[in-house]
Amino acid sequence: MKSISSDSYAVHFNENAFKALNKHLKGADYSKIFILVDENTHNLCLPQFMAEIEGDYVYEIIEIEAGEIHKNLETCTQVWEAMSELDADRKSLMINLGGGVITDMGGFIASCFKRGIHFINVPTTLLSMVDASVGGKTGIDLGAIKNQIGVINQPQMVLVVSQFLNTLEERQLQSGFAEMLKHGLIKEKKYWEELKLLSNFDTMDEFIYHSVQIKNEVVLQDPTEQNIRKILNFGHTLGHAIESYFLESSSHETLLHGEAIAVGMIMEAFLSKELTGLSEKELEDIKTTFLKRYKKVAFTEEDIQAILGLMKFDKKNSHGNINFVLLESIGNPVIDIKIPNDLYIKAFDYYKD
Amino acid sequence: MKSISSDSYAVHFNENAFKALNKHLKGADYSKIFILVDENTHNLCLPQFMAEIEGDYVYEIIEIEAGEIHKNLETCTQVWEAMSELDADRKSLMINLGGGVITDMGGFIASCFKRGIHFINVPTTLLSMVDASVGGKTGIDLGAIKNQIGVINQPQMVLVVSQFLNTLEERQLQSGFAEMLKHGLIKEKKYWEELKLLSNFDTMDEFIYHSVQIKNEVVLQDPTEQNIRKILNFGHTLGHAIESYFLESSSHETLLHGEAIAVGMIMEAFLSKELTGLSEKELEDIKTTFLKRYKKVAFTEEDIQAILGLMKFDKKNSHGNINFVLLESIGNPVIDIKIPNDLYIKAFDYYKD
């Protein structure tokens, strides 16, 4: 599989991934290699990963606790302190081996340590392969607000190795798949149709590749999210608020990212029908497709009010306005749409129906 | 006074500073302006500053506690939380009004908030005018390690308004003056000679301007500190360790940054005589000049060992080596010099003598 060139680096796939990594390590003169893992990737991915590295380097493994709840400044501080203790310097390399929490947070940790050291992302979940692998977004949560703190900074390379998917449960794969469905909705109806038909996750390589291509094409046009890059946020304005709310709420089970944005996409598709001309037929197609894959989430009145309250912290907002990405039709998004207040409740009603 | 153009922004002086600011604010469409101050600049500088702003904007003043001891992640978190509460968004502007702690930390806070918002630095101390105003270094301390966490990111503009110096005590002015003397040592013997003769701080404008010019010239050649920019670290390898140690130690009075690097410069001048050919005469000139202005610091054996231990965290290190900037002569620095271990004690002995 051909590597995909992004901004200043490339995404390498499967058989090429370790070749590219070994070549890079041989050519660089890193003083030490730090590998950031959580307990899952430590057990399930690290042995495989280490077996592929040729050559003799000095490693330190830093393990953090798994889960979005740990994607915060306290964890960063612990890692920075560990790195200082372990003599990390400006010529150290950080390899982030894990899902989106590890790649987002590890990228932030590396970008701020001594004003920036090199890092390489090795996403091990479907979500992080198709979503976090390109675009240079790094970040952590601040309280309930997702990715409130972060920088845009590019890794040295990204390695997408689909064998790591074998370590994942079905629910995790479905979560990542929601982002792929989004890629169809915002960019390519044909891809949406293909993905809809997929009944298992056995042979994903071509689809992962295509999703990375779509995302890469978008971020290269607009690296700092001034305009077109915003289309990647379809489903995320409501989706992020829902995810944040369930993460903090003690009375609800936590939703995975993909599960939350699946809800967000159904609701924002409804808003698209109301405001930007999405057809009834495509709206129903979207709702049916997501509800077939993702369990319906129950919202009380109280939940809805709290979620709408959280939405005002969305990074896409400015001047007190909440800006949405909506669809004119599947494959044709529009950005910077403002929503009349009464439509939010209707969107929840449509989802519940 | 002509503005000095740096990387992507300019440094504006005195009568031009507020003109430039007002023009920028008028042209931009900021949703809100956050002004970061400490209790000193809140009282002594903010009223003057606000009086110069024309036009009607929405402000929020965020006050933090003064002092290097608060230049840490806890303070950043408090400010980020306050900003979130006050509805800061991606189109908000942050103005950092204060000394190096405020401009370094405020720059970091702005650079990471929602992956980066605009910021403007208004240094109010001599040190921050001549040192922190160009170069784009932002940062905070991690435990005892100075500026361990940060990014390189440029402000929209920097305003150097020398009337703010009237709010400073003599000791603060002397601290900043140490960086100016450094500019002479690393770049221009003539400037060193001029500064040596200065007996008071009444008319500093031309000197501040020249120091900003020197620093700007250096950082423009090497923004990411791969080579020549390192010369700005003269006196700082030992100086930072000394400053960190005194900051953390409960049995010592805290040293100001300039006071610590004055000690560092004397010692590193000694190392220069030993290793890179600095003449005995210039070494004595350097020692005499600094000791005339800065009170001699007493070091016990225990202090020295602790300081040498801290030095290994210096950001300039790599591969376990501590890299020094030394002088061949006044005005002619050399970078990446390694020091035989026994010379450190001799450098302290020379300073004590």
Short description:
The first copy, chain A, is α/β, with parallel strands linked by helices and 353 residues long. Chain A has 14 helices and eleven strands. In chain A, the strands form three sheets. The first copy, chain A, has a seven-stranded mixed beta sheet. In chain A, strands 7-8 form a two-stranded antiparallel ribbon. A two-stranded antiparallel ribbon of chain A has the order 10-11.
Structural notes for this entry:
2 copies of one chain form a homodimer. Chain A is an alpha/beta fold. Chain A folds into 2 domains: 4-167, Rossmann fold; 170-352, Dehydroquinate synthase-like, alpha domain, CATH 1.20.1090.10. Chain A is 48% helix and 15% strand. Chain A is built from 14 helices and 11 strands. In chain A, strands 1-2-9-6-5-3-4 form a 7-stranded mixed beta sheet. Chain A has a two-stranded antiparallel ribbon with strand order 7-8. In chain A, a hairpin with a 2-residue loop joins strand 10 (324-329) and strand 11. In chain A, helix 10 (236-248) packs across helix 13 (301-311) and helix 11 (257-275) runs antiparallel to helix 12. The longest helix of chain A is centred in the last third of the chain and has 19 residues, at 257-275. Chain A is globular. The model of chain A has no long low-confidence stretch (mean pLDDT 94). The A-B interface holds A 29, 31, 73, 76-77, 80-81, 84, 87, 89-91, 111-116, 137-139, 142-143, 145, 147-153, 312-313, 315-320 and B 29, 31, 73, 76-77, 80-81, 84, 87, 89-91, 111-116, 137-139, 142-143, 145, 147-153, 312-313, 315-320. Chains A, B: Catalyzes the conversion of 3-deoxy-D-arabino-heptulosonate 7-phosphate (DAHP) to dehydroquinate (DHQ). Chains A, B: Residues 62-174 form the 3-dehydroquinate synthase N-terminal domain. Chains A, B: GO terms for molecular function: 3-dehydroquinate synthase activity. Chains A, B: Its cofactor is NAD(+); Co(2+). Chains A, B: This is 3-dehydroquinate synthase.
